[in-house]
Amino acid sequence: MTSIKDSKCVLVTGATSGIGRALAQCIARLPSKPCVIAVGRRQERLDELAKEGLETVQLDVEASYDALKKFADEIILKYPNLDSIIFCAGVQHEFNFKGEVDLSNVVSEININYTSVVALISLFLPHLLSLGAQGRKCSIIPVTSGLAIVPAPWVLNYSASKAALHSFSVSLRAQLKNTNVHVMEVIPPLVESELHDAYGTTEKLSRFWMPLEEYTTKTMEGLENGDVYITTGNIQGVFEKFEKGKDELAEQFQKRREEW
C-alpha cells in the first residue's frame, strides 16, 4: 500500500480543468508539501496554477509518440524525484451510430483517453521501477470512470475507452505485484465538469452530478489511505457488484503465465 502523502513529486495530466485541476491543487496543499507538476493544454490556466506554486508543463497528450517521449525524458531529467503520476486528461463525445458518425472524434477519444495513457505509462515506468528498486514507493494512478463498468449508450466510445483503461490497469497491477510501483485507480461517478459543455448537456446533468469539491474531498481520502480502487457515490455499489474478485483472477492468470 502507498499513500499520496508519502509522495515527493506528483505529476498530474489534465490539470487545467475538472478533477485533474482540483486534485493537483489539493495535493500541492498537503502538509508534506510534495512537488506537483500540473500538465495540460491551456497555457493561461497553467499560468494560474503556477501562481499557486505548482510546477507547470504544457502538453497535448494527443501528440505523437516522439513528442510524448521527449516530454517524459525532459520531466525525468528535471524532476528525478517524480514518484507518482495521476492520469486525468480526457475527452468525451456523444455518438449516435444510427446516423452519421465523425470517425475522427472516435479515434481522437481513444487516443486521449486510452492510447496516450498507455504510452506515457510505458515511458515513465522504467524510471518508477528504478526508484522502486531503491526502496521508494511509487504510484501509477489512472482516472477511469463508472462508465468503464456500466456504459452509457450515448457516450459509447468514451465508455469503451475507459473500460479499456480499467482493464489495462487491472492487468498492470498484476504484472507489477512484486515491485514498489503500485497501481491505484480512481473511478468517478458523474462529477461536476466542463466535460459535458460541448454537447449542451451541462445544465441537465448538473441536477444529478456530484459537486466537484465534495468529490475531490472524498477522492483525496482514498489517495491518502492508499486505496487500490477509489470509488464514490453510486459507483461504490456498482463496483462491488461487477468487479469484485477480478484482481485475484488477474493475479492467478499472471502467475500461470510466469510458470509456462
List the helices and strands and how they pair.
Layout: E1 9-13, H1 18-28, E2 35-40, H2 43-51, E3 55-58, H3 65-78, E4 84-87, H4 103-133, E5 138-142, H5 156-175, E6 181-183, E7 185-187, H6 202-205, H7 212-225, E8 229-231, H8 235-243, H9 246-259
Parallel strand pairs: 1-2, 1-4, 2-3, 4-5, 5-6, 7-8
Helix pairs in contact: 1-7, 3-4, 4-5, 5-9
Spatial strand arrangement across the major sheet:
3-2-1-4-5-6
How helical, in percent, are the residues? 40-55%
Q: How many domains, in number, for the residues?
A: 1
Q: Judging from the principal axes of the Cα atoms, what is the shape?
A: globular
Question: What is the CATH class?
Answer: Alpha Beta
Question: Total number of helical segments?
Answer: 9
DSSP strand count: 8
Determine the CATH topology. Answer: Rossmann fold
Mean pLDDT: 94
CATH homology-level superfamily: NAD(P)-binding Rossmann-like Domain
The helix/strand series, from N terminus to C terminus, equals EHEHEHEHEHEEHHEHH
> In terms of per-residue confidence, which ranges show pLDDT below 50 for 5 or more consecutive residues?
none
The radius of gyration computed from the alpha-carbon positions, rounded to a whole number of angstroms, is: 18 Å
Beta-strand fraction estimate? 5-15%
- Describe the oligomeric state of these chains in a short phrase: single chain
State the separation between the terminal residues, measured CA to CA: 29 Å
Pfam family, one: adh_short
Family: Belongs to the short-chain dehydrogenases/reductases (SDR) family.
Protein name: NAD(P)-binding protein
Keywords: NADP, Oxidoreductase
